[in-house]
Write a structure and sequence with these properties.
The chain is mainly beta and 737 residues long. The protein folds into seven domains: 152 residues, Jelly Rolls, CATH 2.60.120; 90 residues, Immunoglobulins (Immunoglobulin-like, Sandwich), CATH 2.60.40; 79 residues, Immunoglobulin-like, CATH 2.60.40.10; 99 residues, Sandwich (Immunoglobulin-like); 64 residues; 81 residues, Immunoglobulin-like; 83 residues. Strands 1, 2, 4, 7, 9 and 12 form a six-stranded antiparallel sheet that branches. Helix 3 runs antiparallel to helix 6.
């Protein structure tokens, strides 16, 4: 069991002349240099040290050697304990706090904060002589109490009572009490040896904080301390010692470059080793990563290979591709089975010191395995048809390309059209668009353009396919049209409006009246409300190609709304000259302000639909004749008159009067009148031949009277004329007999 404190004890001051604390090795550690002295054995009783009391134990040295360590099995509460080695001649009285200086060979102050074996090391080991008695004296400090640890020691005294050791403690039945061990050592004059490595032998470090990794060998006393410096071996020998450990942290001087640490070992006997050293390269500068080879920015392959380097040898690399992920790489990386798209490759170098490039090298490229397509069509502003000597086409690739020139074009045109001059220019819009101009075109016909296969290459090196088109043909028409129209008024008209009919074709027409403003006209052109006088309509055809008829079609006419003039015609009365009537002559006098006289049309009719002409046989009786004059404009004027052809009876009566007026004797007159009456009767009886014979008889009778100078020649001629007129009327024909 473990003894426990049962009460508080008096406090008193304790003063010691010299107290030395020495770093202790782990309890129980043994080396060939330090071995336990078996002369100190177990005590038969538990021993307590209470409040400035002295507890001593006498031992006899088992051999002659240095004593530098005592292991005490202690339990404590708080405070400190002085442990002394004294000379003795028979023991140290209990409770003795003081001693003469020559009695105290060495001492140590120990603070124990745990139960178990506590090792006390003396800074000044002493030499004990075999067979000589020495005392181990324990002196408790104020307000402290200590005790030896023994198995199953029972507390025998009362709480807070003063007692002797034998009276206060006793040993439980079956136990042998307590024990402690003294350690003796041989004199040590051998240098320790050891090794030094920085960061376990690393060649580089990227931080000034490193670890010194140590190994130390010492045959006797053991490795105790080390001295080291980064300035040089001399500085290491004067450096402040620190406890030996297998790993010691160290901050290197700043600044990149090689750093050397110089170190020596010190054993417990104070022996020092030779200087050992190790060098490590301090490198806090990140490396630079450079990509040496890579696919082009646009690439038509599904595999990409990258090579790269660092400006620091023995660097390692980490590669990534996005989209994707990490890639295995060391100076080269290969990416397979890439689909079309844009990728970014990055590689970052880490140098042997562990510095990583904060700015990885990157390369972005696009995988494009699709061939460009191309279309050829008329330019948006290209008229079709056209009369121009040049035409334009738009060539549009599906993406920017290179290598496209005039040799990649196929130009097709008709036989009546000259071969063009070809020019290609960027469209000014997307980089994939071009404008193709075909110039110096002469003639008529269709012309078309297309692009051959493999004409151009995209950025990835894919060759284009052949062109497709919606409308890649333009019609060239440089021949002016002929202007045609129908309708229109005659040269002279009395109409104050006019209509012109235009052809139903693709031409555009402009129409102009006189010197007016041209207006567009389609299908027909009408003008109204025209003034009297001359007018001209000019019609010009423009074909779909823009050709304009250089010889416009014109139509000139005159509007005449003034009626012509016709002079009144006197009525005509005339004797019949033929069986049906008489030839009648009548003058028709006309005039017009515009129509020439020869162009005036005059017509006379009898009101019954029968035309009447001057010098025409007028029937016996009275005929009302209307004469109308019409000018070229269709204006008319009319006048009417009568033609009277007397009857045949009137002619017979006139002949009878003429015979009477001859003044012939009655008998002669009676003969002549009888002859006339017989002729008239025969004519009326429808016997014109016999009537004419009888008139011949009458003429002969008149001739006879003329020969006899009974009738004047002029009068006789008048009679002859009348009988001839009657012959004509009754249809005898011929002259008088």
């Amino acid at each position: 069991m473990v003894l426990v404190r049962r009460g508080r004890l008096a406090v008193a001051a304790l003063c010691l002349a010299i107290l030395i604390i020495v770093a202790a090795a782990p309890a129980g550690a043994q080396t060939p240099w330090e071995q336990p002295d078996q002369s100190v054995g177990a005590s038969s009783v538990g021993i307590a040290v209470i409040d400035n009391q002295v507890l001593s134990q006498v031992f006899t040295a088992g051999r002659t050697a240095e004593l530098g360590r005592v292991d005490l099995p202690l339990e404590r509460n708080t405070g400190s304990l002085i442990v002394q080695i004294r000379t003795t001649t028979g023991g140290v009285p209990d409770g003795e706090l003081t001693a003469t200086p020559e009695q105290v060979l060495t001492s140590a102050t120990v603070s124990v904060d745990r139960d178990g074996i506590d090792t006390v090391r003396f800074s000044q080991p002493i030499t004990v002589v075999e067979g000589t008695q020495y005392a181990i004296v324990l002196i408790a400090g104020p307000a402290d109490w200590w005790w030896w640890k023994a198995s199953d020691i029972e507390y025998a005294g009362g709480l807070g009572r003063s007692c002797t050791l034998d009276a206060c403690w006793r040993v439980s039945s079956g136990h042998s009490g307590y024990s402690f061990t003294t350690y003796l050592r041989e004199p040590d004059t051998v240098q320790p040896t050891g090794t030094l490595s920085i960061n376990a032998g690393d060649t580089y470090t990227n931080t000034t904080g490193v670890t010194l990794n140590l190994t130390c060998q010492d045959a006797l006393s053991g490795c105790h301390q080390v001295q080291f410096s980064t300035e040089g071996p001399d500085e290491a020998q004067t450096a402040t010692p620190v406890p030996y450990a297998e790993s010691i942290p160290l901050t290197l001087p700043s600044g990149d470059g090689p750093k050397t640490v110089y170190l020596r070992f010190i054993d417990l006997a104070g022996n020092t080793s030779s200087i050992v050293s190790d060098t490590i390269e301090l490198d806090t500068t990140p490396p630079e990563t450079d990509i040496l080879t890579s696919p082009p920015t646009y690439f038509n392959q599904n595999t990409a290979v990258f090579t790269f380097e660092s400006n620091e040898a023995d660097s390692t690399f980490v590669c990534h591709v996005q989209p994707g992920g990490p890639l295995p790489c060391q100076e080269q990386a290969q990416i397979d089975e890439l689909v079309d798209g844009t990728y970014t490759f990055s590689v970052v170098a880490t140098d042997p010191a562990g510095n990583t490039d904060p700015t990885p090298a990157t390369w972005t490229w696009t995988v494009d395995t699709v061939r460009p397509t191309v279309s050829v069509n008329q330019a948006i502003t290209q008229p079709d048809p056209t009369n121009a000597t040049s035409v334009t086409f738009e060539v549009k690739f599906s993406e920017p390309v290179t290598g496209f020139d005039s040799t990649d074009l196929v130009i097709t045109h008709g036989p009546n059209l000259s071969a063009p001059t070809i020019s290609i220019t960027p469209s000014g819009g997307p980089a994939s668009d071009y404008t193709v101009t075909l110039s110096n075109l002469i003639g008529d016909g269709d012309i078309s353009a297309s692009v051959i296969e493999n004409a151009a290459q995209d950025a990835a090196g894919n060759s284009s396919v052949g062109s497709t088109s919606i409308d890649n043909t333009v019609t060239i028409d440089q021949t002016p049209p002929e202007t045609m129209f129908s309708g229109g008024p005659p040269a002279i008209t009395n109409a104050t409006s006019a209509t012109f009919v235009l052809p139903n074709d693709d031409n555009a027409y402009t129409c102009t009246l006189d010197s007016g403003t041209p207006t567009a006209c389609t299908e027909s052109y009408s003008v109204t409300g025209l003034a009297e006088g001359a007018h001209t309509v000019t019609i010009i055809a423009t074909d779909p190609a823009g050709n304009i008829d250089p010889t416009p079609a014109t139509h000139s006419w005159t509007i005449d709304v003034t009626n012509p003039t016709i002079q009144p015609i006197q009525n005509v009365t005339i004797d019949p000259e033929e069986p049906g009537g008489a030839i009648v002559f009548f003058p028709v006098v006309v005039s017009d302000n515009l129509t020439p006289l020869g162009s005036l049309v005059t017509a006379c009719d009898d009101g019954g639909g029968n035309l009447v002409f001057s010098g025409q046989l007028a029937p016996i009786g009275t005929t009302v004749v209307t004469c109308t004059v019409t000018d070229q404009a269709g204006n008319q004027s009319s006048t009417s008159f009568t033609i009277t052809v007397r009857s045949v009876g009137s002619l017979w009566a006139d002949l009878g009067v003429a015979l009477v007026e001859l003044g012939l004797p009655t008998s002669t007159e009676r003969t002549l009148m009888t002859q006339m009456a017989v002729a008239q009767a025969l004519a009326n009886a429808g016997q014109p031949g016999m009537a004419c014979q009888q008139l011949n008889v009458l003429d002969m009778s008149v001739k006879s009277q003329e020969s006899k100078r009974r009738i004047d020649r002029r009068d006789a001629a008048a009679i002859y004329a009348q009988t001839q007129q009657l012959r004509n009327v009754i249809g005898c024909g011929g002259a008088r007999g």
